[in-house]
Amino acid sequence: MRKLSKVITIFVMVFLSVALSFAQGSGDKLGDQSKLIKTLNKPLTFVFIPKVIHPWYDVVKEGALAAAEEFKKMGITVNIKFDAPTNADISEQMKKIEANISARPDGLAIAALDPATNTRLINDAIKAKLNVITFDTDAPNSNRPLYVGHSKDFQDGYDLGEYLAKLINYKGKVGILSGSLTAPNHVGRVKGFKEAIAKYPGISIVFDRPDNDDLQKAVELTENALQANSDLVGIFGCNASNPIGAARAVKAAGKTGKVHIVGMDDLPETLQLIKEGVIDATKAQRQWEIGYWAVKYLVAMNQNHTIPAVHETGSRLITKNDL
Amino acid sequence: MKKFIKTKEMSMFIALAILCLIMTVSTSTFMTPYNIGIIARQISFIAIVAIGQTIVLLTGGIDLSVGSIAGLSGILCSLLMTKMHVDTLSIIFISLVLGIILGCVNGILIGRLKLNAFIVTLAMGEIYGGLILVITRGYPILDLPESFAFLGQGMIGLVPVPVIFMLVITVVIAYILENTPFGRNIYAVGGNSVAAKLAGIKVENVTLYVYMLSGMFASFSGLLLTSRMNAGQPTIGSSWVMPSVTAAIIGGTSLSGGEGTIIGTIIGAAFMGVLANGIVLLNISSYWERVITGAVVIIAVVIDLLRKIRSQKE
Predict the structure, then answer these.
(1) pLDDT value for B2
(2) Are B163 and B47 in contact (CB under 8 A)?
(3) Which residues of chain B lie closer than 8 angstroms to A82, CB-CB?
(4) pLDDT over threshold 90, residue B236
């Protein structure tokens, strides 16, 4: 009899503890969404793979480092590495991306040099269970969860076309330095510029030459264009280096103010030339923001937060009045 | 065996083995199937071009048009596949013939008209490279057939398909160079073309054939990379010229001709591939990559020189 009561007591106690643990468990499952967020207990390493080594990306890096600094104050260590191919060559970039997938960083940000090829690589990396985003230039058909950057290239070219047209009173000869024929952002801006100019029958485009993002080449092309067209009134540069190249040639020829220059970005020399009045206006991307937000979102992804699919960082017009 | 140990191929092979050992010990990510797979595939594209380059270098010439031939072939083949729906097997054949034709122009200008190889191939490279832009206007050619992807992206077991092509080509060409009259003629022309002529070798023909072979391999490699890229890229091959020469030089091929082997070139290409991968895995700034590659070439040439001096003393 005593034996039986012992057995029953044990049975009841086991039943109660099991029932209690279930009750506790079900209470956990419902509601508390904060449990979905993972705490980070190790330093994070993020790798950025730009299209090419270029001072433009140094500003992206500054933004990325600033975000890392903020996280440091919160007790989260983020290591940032930029690993750019030395040439803007897709097979070189592919090697970099593949090797960095091998290194298994906590986050991988890729600037698509060519969306068709990058799409497959990005999907490879995602299949390898890495956190992959695109920055600067997107690969929209890939499975990337997020793109951080400025994608309105056509609009930038169009706006600069409008600005230049107004400067030259909607008449005269203008020229285009068209950058790299294979870079979609250069191509987009040139297309936008041409479309804006096409509205004004008084303006004719007398030259359209690729400088391949090479400063010296841009200088030479502009020198030749000034020789061939003594009545040139405007030049459009579609990347960060060619408005500088055009400005150097125009300045050397003593045609500052006679030949108006509009172009892209805000490298230190560009700003100096705007101050001097050699360059009239540029559209500058806010690439510091690209680096900053890329790091913010990559940390968020590691914490299992939700993120947007696109973060548009925009661009702004810079003229002498802004400096 | 004793002879092989003394060769420069062996010293490069030892250097490659040491490099791999360092990488295995210092990183946990080097010796993984994925990483070895990507290195092997990356090497194979450049190695196939470098095999053609080596054959040309053996005759004392140089082919600076390999990159543009690869690119032009990649573009033309992409167009044939997307516009005329040519199947994969035929496109391999077409790309080989195309490469031979493009290389043939080099061969005729250099062999028959006795023009300087450096200048001819530099200029032809510009022409072919320009034609790529004329045809594509800079845009990649997309929507290649699914079946074509196998050439550059496929795997047979754990081995990427381009690696198999590289191995087959290596064995065939190494055999031809060592065991056939044509192979011996190539070395003879490079060693001393006047003596070769006196010995009854048709130097013009040998010259013509080596540029045809170089064009053929460049073109084929361009096709493989097109498949790997999943698109006919206008920039395919544009950065291949120097690496193809570098791989041969690291592997012991002499720029003055007559000296070098295919095995050496493959080892040279592998060394560069592992080095580039190591720079990423070891977290070395990419700014240093070209500095290091350049230094390796200088070291390889100096070691080769020291080895020569020692063997002369003996």
Answers:
(1) 45
(2) no
(3) 286
(4) no
A128 contact residues in B (CB cutoff 8 A): 34
The answer to whether residue B82 neighbours chain A at the CB level (below 8 Å) is: no
A116/B142 Cβ within 8 A: yes
| Count of Cβ atoms closer than 10 Å to residue A95 Cβ | 20
What local confidence, expressed as pLDDT, does residue B38 receive? 87
What parts of chain A have a pLDDT lower than 70? Answer: 1-4, 12-30
B221 contacts B45 by C-beta, under 8 angstroms:
yes
Could you tell me the domains of chain A? 44-150+287-314 (3.40.50.2300), 153-284 (3.40.50.2300)
Question: What is the ipTM for the molecules in this complex?
Answer: 0.70
- For chain B, list the domains and their CATH numbers: 7-307 (1.10.3470)
Average pLDDT of B83-99? 95
Give the CA count within 13 Å in the CB-facing half-sphere of B238.
20
The verdict on a CB contact (< 8 Å) between A114 and B137 is: no
What residues 46-75 of chain B have any CB closer than 8 A to a CB of chain A? none
Angle at which helices A90-103 and B262-281 pack, to 10 degrees? 60
Q: Would you state the pLDDT for residue A30?
A: 63
A interface with B, Cβ–Cβ below 8 Å: 53, 81-92, 94-96, 98-104, 114, 116-117, 119-120, 128, 180-182, 187
Name every residue whose Cβ is closer than 8 Å to that of residue A152 and which is 6 or more positions away in sequence: A312, A314, A315
